[in-house]
Structures are given as structure tokens and as C-alpha cells.
């Protein structure tokens, strides 16, 4: 919590502390409610989530009253945690399977637009799994961004995972195929595939990502499709997310760069809009700066 608090310091002052200040003042007049609404909107919670949260706060406030700052904190904590869908399943599915008596790796596709932190997230996730004692194969299927494969290779050395890469400009699907084949042959626990992040046209993306998934599925089940979104891009990130979720079945969101933004409220909006749980959050550039997302801990860090 302490670390999360530090990393979320911008959102904490812009969102958590502002709301506590407003609600802790006791009886709120219309102007103050307007300020509550503005605070939520500015922190990127989006119009519909904001309306819903304000309604719940108003109803609860008149039902039970808020006398102390602890009351305000408890009320905010309850309403905000609920708005994050407290009982969503946020576990990343990265456990191997047994098929016909043979061990098969879990396959995780990591998708997202270039620059969002896709390759970094793939490396960090490998580190988490390796530190849990699992063997990991990384697939460098982002063959369009010249440096991506080198970057993933550096991660593989850093975390102790194997990497499969193709020649520059190779077909992403063929690299993905080779990575999964290696994972199956080596009886690895998980194969993480860094996919190409070109969002040139929707059909182009569909062709590329769709093909990667189809080709992978010839050998193993795709357990998880993680969509990486940059929290600092706000509405733009949401627009990207909509396109991706039309093209492929996204099963989890990774929200990166939450450390660099005061608009942590985007977590609420992304989850609500896409109907897909936020599973992981990026809280910095370092190898250990990927954390499982927990609604209650996140809200606590905003309010503490
Ligand atoms: P890709 O093009 O999507 O694969 O993006 P990269 O993985 O290369 O990341 C782009 C930049 O964002 C790099 O400088 C990363 O170090 C940085 N980055 C990735 N995740 C985070 C994060 O959670 N917080 C911060 N502050 N920077 C991040």
C-alpha cells in the first residue's frame, strides 16, 4: 500500500484528497456537489461513472450523514470500490494445462498500440512468473517496430526467460507460432507473446492480430489476451480499446503509466466501458513496477 500510495501521488492529490476535502466538510450545497462532479470528471472517470458515483454519494450521505473525516473516508472508499466492480476476476490466466497427458503452456497474447508499454509489460509479466518458479518463453512477434525484439531479448536475459524471435520484418504470426512450438516442446509453463501494435486500419489490425491468434490456436489454447493501455492518454486510450475489443476477445486490461498521471480515474472508465477487468497496472519503468490490480487497495491508496 505504501508503495502504491507513492506511485499514485498525482492521482491521490487530484482525486482522493480533493474528494476527502469536499465530503469531509459535512453538509454539501449544490456548488460543492458540482465541485465533486468536476473533480471526478477532471480525473477521467467519464460522464456516466461520475453521475452514478455522485448519485450514490448523495443518497448515502443523506441516509447516514457524514460527521467526521473518517466517515467521509469510509463512504468514499465504499462507493469508489463498488464502482470498480469489487468482485471481478482479476487473476491473469497463466497456468499450464494438461492435454492428453502432456503438459501444455498457458498462452498469453499481449496487444496494444506502440508506445503504450506493451513490450515492457511483457517483460515485467515474465519476471513475475519466473519469480514464482515458472518457466517462460517470450515471443517477439512485434516485428514491425525494429527495436522491439532487441528490447524483449534484453528482458529475457534480465528475468531468465527464453526468447523466440524472427528476422526483421518477419510475419508476426510465424514468430508467434514458433514461440508457442518452443513452449510446447520445452514443456514451459507459459508463453507470452508481444504482438505488433500497428493501429493503421481496423482491417489491418484484424488481419494481423486475428492471424496471430488463429495460428497460435493450432497448437495451444490462448488463455489470456491482455490489452495494454497508457493511462496518460485518456479518451484516446479508450478509443483504441474499443477498436481492439472489436477485433479480438480481450480478457484483461493492463493500464500502464499510472505513476505519471493525475487521471487515475481512467481505471473506472476503462473497466466500465469495456466490461473487461483491469488485471494489472504499470507503476513505473523498473522491472518490479507491475502490480496486480486490486480495487480496494487502489482506492485505499487514493484516499490515504
Ligand atoms: P511498446 O511500444 O508498447 O512496446 O512500448 P514500450 O514497452 O517500449 O514502452 C514505451 C515507454 O514507456 C518506455 O520508455 C517504457 O519504459 C515506458 N513505460 C512502460 N510502462 C510504464 C509504466 O508503467 N510507467 C512508466 N512511467 N513508464 C512506463
From TrEMBL:
Is Ligase there in the keyword field?
Answer: no
List, for all copies, the residue spans of the domain called SRP54-type proteins GTP-binding.
Answer: 277-290
Top class in the EC scheme: hydrolase
**Which reaction(s) does the protein catalyse, per the Swiss-Prot or TrEMBL entry?**
GTP + H2O = GDP + phosphate + H(+)
An annotated GO cellular component of this protein is: plasma membrane
Q: Name one GO biological process term.
A: SRP-dependent cotranslational protein targeting to membrane
Q: What's the protein's topology in the membrane? A: Peripheral membrane protein
Q: Where does GTP bind?
A: 112-119, 194-198, 256-259
Localization, per the record, is: Cell membrane; Cytoplasm
GO MF annotation: an example: signal recognition particle binding
What does this gene product do?
Involved in targeting and insertion of nascent membrane proteins into the cytoplasmic membrane. Acts as a receptor for the complex formed by the signal recognition particle (SRP) and the ribosome-nascent chain (RNC).
Q: Under what name is this protein listed?
A: Signal recognition particle receptor FtsY
Q: Which organism is it from?
A: Saccharomonospora marina XMU15
- Tell me the stretch of the parent sequence this chain holds: 139 to 442 of 442
Amino acid at each position: 500500500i505504501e508503495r502504491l500510495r507513492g506511485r499514485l501521488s498525482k492521482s491521490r492529490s487530484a482525486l482522493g484528497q480533493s474528494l476527502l476535502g469536499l465530503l469531509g466538510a459535512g453538509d454539501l450545497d449544490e456548488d460543492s456537489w458540482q465541485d465533486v462532479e468536476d473533480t471526478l470528471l477532471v480525473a477521467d472517470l467519464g460522464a456516466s461513472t461520475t453521475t452514478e458515483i455522485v448519485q450514490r454519494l448523495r443518497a448515502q450521505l443523506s441516509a447516514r450523514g457524514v460527521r467526521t473525516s473518517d466517515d467521509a473516508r469510509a463512504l468514499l472508499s465504499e462507493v469508489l470500490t463498488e464502482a470498480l466492480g469489487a468482485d471481478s476476476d482479476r487473476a491473469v490466466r497463466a497456468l499450464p494445462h494438461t492435454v492428453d497427458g502432456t503438459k501444455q503452456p498457458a498462452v498469453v497474447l499481449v496487444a496494444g498500440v506502440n508506445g503504450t508499454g506493451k513490450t515492457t509489460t511483457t517483460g515485467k509479466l515474465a519476471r513475475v512468473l519466473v519469480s514464482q518458479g515458472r518457466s517462460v518463453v517470450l515471443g517477439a512477434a512485434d516485428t514491425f517496430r525494429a527495436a522491439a525484439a532487441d528490447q524483449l531479448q534484453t528482458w529475457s536475459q534480465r528475468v531468465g526467460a527464453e526468447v523466440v524471435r524472427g528476422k526483421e520484418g518477419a510475419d508476426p504470426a510465424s514468430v508467434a507460432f514458433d514461440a508457442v512450438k518452443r513452449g510446447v516442446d520445452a514443456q514451459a509453463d507459459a508463453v507470452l507473446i508481444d504482438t505488433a501494435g500497428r493501429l493503421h486500419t481496423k482491417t489491418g489490425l484484424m488481419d494481423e492480430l486475428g492471424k496471430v491468434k488463429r495460428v497460435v490456436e493450432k497448437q495451444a489454447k490462448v488463455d489470456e489476451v491482455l490489452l495494454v493501455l497508457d493511462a496518460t492518454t485518456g479518451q484516446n486510450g479508450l478509443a483504441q480499446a474499443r477498436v481492439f475489443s472489436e477485433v479480438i476477445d480481450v480478457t484483461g486490461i493492463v493500464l500502464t503509466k499510472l505513476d505519471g498521471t493525475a487521471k487515475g480515474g481512467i481505471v473506472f472508465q476503462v473497466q466500465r466501458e469495456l466490461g473487461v477487468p483491469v488485471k494489472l497496472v504499470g507503476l513505473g519503468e523498473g522491472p518490479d513496477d507491475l502490480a496486480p490490480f486490486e480495487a480496494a487497495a487502489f482506492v485505499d491508496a487514493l484516499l490515504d
